[in-house]
Design goal:
four-stranded mixed β-sheet; UDP-n-acetylglucosamine1-carboxyvinyl-transferase, Chain; about 25% strand; binds ligand EPZ; 2 domains; alpha/beta; about 425 residues; 14 helices
Length: about 425
């Protein structure tokens, strides 16, 4: 199993290209199931989760062709993926595959909408909490699906097709909103989704669906309206830049000091997080080329942050911010409101010398003068990368184990950081 070795203490200077967003790529690939025509996606990141979803789609009979960088494309441009779900041969998504990646549960919606049935394994627990799918099931029922749970599988049926309906989410759910929009696109009649997730990835997927012929308005707001159509067609779509990758590297620069251009990043996708970084002492500016982050000399200031659905501070940057605050001059508080168990990084950060106390959903972080390298490991990808951020500022050597978590969501992490001066290497095997 690969590990990453980091020797801390070096500032970051240079340019880091930002990849396409993992959390838009996955639902976009799943949306290909809605049409028998070909969906071409550009700027797809090279990630383990993309490969895994490719296998899951293959299992339904979908052809997925990955091609590398396009001629004339920038050195680090993402890959182009051509997906054709002309012949769906199987509407079952088995436990062995769904249990490896929760988002694959979302295939339920397009399979049901297009084929009139789907049989998808319940995803089960995961490292960051229980993460139920009750709201996704509720959304399908509101569109007229008949749902049964049998042997750990959700059996969804709508032999005469789905029909438009009103879906009111009692809490904001990204996955719930994705499946509601996808299913409603092929339903008979109009669907209104209230308290919809406003995450930029929801808007990106809706934009792609509109290009395929769907009639969607309000994506990116809390009220989405979808007028169902009978068929969707082919299109080509470029995945938006990854705001979580952007925020992660921004925090890494704030941690080590230095000056880095996050190339291709879009500040408006993570304004709340960038504001927090400025309060912490970093300088952030949006340019035509991306987002530039620097910190020179100033000490880090403590912050008070509560995670929230977009446009609030993202839960997917909570662990990284906590790593940063371990070096602040004072006491910070970070409250996690989205997932009940997303503090697995706390014990590992403590191994590097961090002082963090947990009280329910709130972490109190007392900044320390120095962190010291140690062997660490983590159980999810954002937690893993928070250890990388801490290690970049720690004295001596840190070995981050279980790098496969990082590979699920960060493209060429050691290469991107290494080119900016970090002493970081992957140890294979
Ligand atoms: C998406 O997960 C992201 N995953 C997550 O990114 C992200 O942390 C999360 O949204 C929140 O922003 C992808 O986009 C692939 P939710 P999702 O439904 O859709 C509860 C990462 O590191 N809930 O918005 O699964 C749920 O338990 C990841 O890239 C229900 O109660 O999250 C949570 O408390 C991890 N019932 C809250 O809603 C349901 O049926 C929000 O979850 C569904 C969700």
């Amino acid at each position: 199993m690969d590990r990453i070795r980091i020797k801390g203490g070096r500032p970051l200077n240079g340019t880091i290209p930002i990849s396409g967003a993992k959390n838009a790529t996955l639902p976009l690939m799943i949306a290909s199931l809605l049409t028998e025509d070909t969906l071409v996606l550009d700027n797809v990141p090279h990630l383990a989760d993309v490969i895994l979803l490719q296998r899951i789609l293959n299992n339904h009979g979908v052809d997925v062709m990955l091609s590398g960088k396009r001629s004339g494309g920038a050195e680090n441009s993402g890959q182009t993926v051509k997906i054709s779900a002309a012949n769906i041969v199987d509407t079952t998504a088995p436990y062995e595959l769904v249990s490896k990646m929760r988002a694959s549960f979302w295939v339920l919606a397009p399979l049901l909408a297009r084929m009139g049935e789907a049989r998808v394994s319940l995803p089960g627990g995961c490292a960051i909490g229980t993460r139920p799918v009750d709201l996704l099931i509720m959304a399908m029922e509101r569109l007229g699906a008949q749902i049964d749970i049998e042997g750990g599988y959700v059996l969804a049926r709508a032999p005469k097709g789905l029909r438009g309906g009103e879906i009111v989410f009692p809490k904001v759910t990204v996955g719930g909103t994705h499946v509601a929009v996808m299913a409603a696109s092929l339903a008979n009649g109009t669907t209104v989704i209230e308290n919809a997730a406003r995450e930029p990835e929801v808007k990106d997927v809706a934009d792609c669906l509109v290009k395929m012929g769907a009639k969607i308005s309000g994506a990116g707001t809390a009220r989405i309206e979808v007028e169902g159509v009978s068929k969707l067609g082919p299109t080509r779509h470029s995945v938006l830049p990854d705001r979580i990758e952007t925020g992660t590297y921004a925090m890494a620069v704030a941690m080590t000091g230095g000056d880095v251009l996050l190339e291709g990043a879009r500040a408006e996708l993570l304004q709340t997080a960038l504001d927090v970084l400025e309060r912490a002492g970093a300088t952030v500016s949006a340019t035509n080329a991306g987002v530039r982050v620097s910190r020179n000399g100033v000490g880090l200031q403590p912050v008070e942050v509560t995670t929230a659905p977009f446009p609030g501070f993202p839960t997917d940057l909570q662990a990284q911010l906590m790593a940063l605050m371990t070096r602040a001059k004072g006491t910070s508080h970070i409250t996690e409101t989205i997932f009940e168990n997303r503090f697995m990084h706390v014990q590992e950060l403590a191994r590097l010398g961090a002082r963090i106390a947990l009280d329910g959903q709130m972490a109190t972080i007392e900044g320390v003068e120095r962190l010291k390298g140690a062997p660490v490991m983590a159980t999810d990808l954002r937690a893993s990368v928070s250890l990388v951020i801490a290690a970049l500022a720690a004295e001596g050597e840190t070995i981050v184990n279980r790098v496969y978590h990082l590979d699920r969501g960060f493209e060429r992490l050691e290469d991107k950081l290494g080119r900016c001066g970090a002493e970081i290497e992957r140890i294979s095997g």
